Amino acid sequence: MESMAVLDSVGVGDLVLLEPLTEDTLMQNLKKRFEHQEIYTYIGNVVISLNPYQPLPIYSAKTVEEYKNCNFFAVKPHIYAIADDAYHSLKNQDKDQCILITGESGAGKTEASKLVMSYVAAVCGKGEEVNRVKEQLLQSNPVLEAFGNAKTIRNDNSSRFGKYMDIEFDFKGDPLGGVINNYLLEKSRVVHHVRGERNFHIFYQLLSGGSDQLLKQLKLERKFSLYNYLNKEPASLQGIDDAGNFKAVQDAMRGIGFTPSEMTEVLEVAAVVLKLGNLQFGEQFQAGGTQACVIQSDKVVQEICQLIHLDETVLEQALSSRTVEAHQDKVVTSLNVSQGYYVRDALAKNIYNRLFNWLINRINESIKVSIYTIGYKFSLLTLIFDICLVSSSQDNSFEQFIINYCNEKLQQIFILLTLKEEQEEYIREGITWTHVDYFDNSIICNLIEDNKSGILAMLDEECLRPGEVNEETFLNKLNQVFLKHQRYESRVTQNAKHIMDTSLPINCFRIQHYAGKVTYNVTGFIEKNNDLLFRGLSQAMWKAKHALLRSLFPEGDPPKASLKRPPTAGSQFKASVFTLMQNLYSKNPNYIRCIKPNDNKRPAVFTDGLVRAQVRYLGLLENVQVRRAGYAFRQAYEPCLERYKILCKETWPHWKGSGRDGVRSVLSSLSTDPKELAYGHTKIFIRSPSTLFDLERRRQQRVQELAALIQAAFRAWKCRKNYQEMRRSQILISAWFRGQRVRSKQTQSCICLAAFDKRILLILVERVQRRATKMIRGLGTKTYKEQLLELGMSIPVVVFKFFLLPVLWTWLGGCGRGRIL
């Protein structure tokens, strides 16, 4: 941790520092933060995310800039922090990264994955090719959501498949491309979903947003109730614009690079799936008296065959009979009505599942990286975890069983990688590793996956063995093998232990998962594990003159046909999980644990029981205990010294030594228990949160003391400054007043003098004027010489009279207006 932002927020931002640590205090901390719209909390570098069910102003461009190149703990807990940390670890340390997003349906996994992708797209480089790759990666979301998401009771946009995305970057941190892998699409939803839920989004989007011309071309009508695979009840959702989303899906497909013909073919295949659900079967008796099914929906068959350009007879025969080949012989067996419906639904599920896989492969073709490019991988994994922890539940079937198996494996690798990461850091820092006691769920994983005596292995054995096979024989075998297993129980094992528990039905078994007990109903296990599609159906689809549909069933080509039995669904999933675990173990993992705060999708509502159950099955308390088993807190010396140097006179305000010596001086001056401390090569390790909180308490106290000193110094400086300003103002005012008084006296004197001078001058002027007039009049009686002589002697008088006198009168007039000499 590079900062104490996790302590400066509401509650405790990092549960590793929670004191005391119990399930109740953990719950109280999460609730307190949620009530203040603090939806993110850390467990070390794990992010816990509570779905707010409302838009929050914490994902703006400004927020992206705040978390860009941030120190993970230097800012408030946020999903952007883990995305930035993973991205820059990949870019700067050349380490492949993985972000694992887990949580139950409605917890916000899909939105979390989109936020991570959008953040990475925002902070990586710019450029035409880079922008093209980023746009295609982002545009994959609307397409996959339309074909892979559905409305469930818990979530209006629930991902019904697991998604693993690898994004590859070059040495500059720019995306080069990527690849998407999917796990376990819930294809059974195509043919059945409970009341209150919907089929996959694309069907409703197509019927709502498709143009009249398009629907006519696909031979569809807008009414949802006309299709058996869609609920008869109103399927529109408040706040969801199916028509608008259909346009967004089309735009996204064009952005990825789908051609118009490819887009049309995809919708034609989706229309075929819808129409298969409207096929009805009836009974007829054959010549031998045996019952056989016959298709009663001729118009539906005709429309399907027109869409895929297939002969109607071929489709009818494939749906109503089964052809078995043995050596060179072919045996055609008619199906009864129930078998006919089973085959119809199996074909619909297989077509949709293969279409979904084709879409992912087509997207991968657009976003793939050149084989000549070497880069670093950033992986984003989003998986479905709808774990039911109510032991009395009888609804958990094969799909839930293998999902919970995957969850056990992820919990196992999470603990192992967490311990491995902790141990590696201790070794790097030269700190003695402390053994950590934790629950090892290997016993549960082996119960399920053991190659010889695991549940999946015995299920495959039952599916493959000759003779009568049903769920009862499968359950009996489980009871024999696991009679004394501490994590397995059924009616038989309970009776053997003299336990009476009527909550466990006779056709169920129960596993004590690390998160709690889960009951599974074995009905349908064998059928779903076989996941067989009759060879005649594959051959019929391959005979269609529809390019896309034909490509989905390559095994229908007779030369490529194989008599070898395809692998079971369980064995395929087990292999996928094994590959996934290897992939995760080779990368630096980052975790986002999503939690649903309430079942009603309401903002600001925190249901304690629901959240507590998720905290348990996500193993959050155990995660915290592992993180703080040795030293709960560690921090590089320099930032630690920067934060706490105010507590020691030797280090405050400036320290000239090394960071390690400075931290040692600070902690020694505080008499901190040496047993609580360990000095690594680059970091200080503190064992318990109470020691850290004591440091924080002392720091806050010292900050308050320094704040008081600063405030006192500031107030004194401000008072001095105000006094000096007032003193300068007083001097200026006094000087101005004295000057004004002197100037006023001088002005009065000048005014009096001017009035006196005016009277004297008037008298003189009158005298000069009379003398000059008299002189001029006397010139007329004298000779010219005398005149000149007289005039020459009187030049000053003449000049004064004719030149200076007008100026003098003007001046005197000015004096009369109060002008001062």
UniProtKB/TrEMBL annotation:
It comes from the Eukaryota. Residues 577-599 are annotated as: Actin-binding. CDD domains: IQCD, MYSc_Myo1. It holds the Pfam family Myosin_head. One of its GO terms (cellular component) is microvillus. This is Unconventional myosin-Ia. Residues 10-700 form the Myosin motor domain. One of its GO terms (biological process) is actin filament-based movement. The keyword Repeat applies. The chain crosses the membrane at residues 791-812. Keywords: Actin-binding, ATP-binding, Calmodulin-binding, Membrane, Motor protein, Myosin, Nucleotide-binding, Repeat, Transmembrane, Transmembrane helix. SUPFAM superfamilies: P-loop containing nucleoside triphosphate hydrolases. InterPro entries: IQ_motif_EF-hand-BS, Kinesin_motor_dom_sf, Myosin_head_motor_dom-like, MYSc_Myo1, P-loop_NTPase. One of its GO terms (molecular function) is ATP binding. Gene3D superfamilies: 1.10.10.820, 1.20.5.190, 1.20.58.530, 6.20.240.20, Kinesin motor domain (3.40.850.10), Myosin VI head, motor domain, U50 subdomain (1.20.120.720). Belongs to the TRAFAC class myosin-kinesin ATPase superfamily. Myosin family. ATP binds at G103, E104, S105, G106, A107, G108, K109, T110. The keyword Ion transport does not apply.
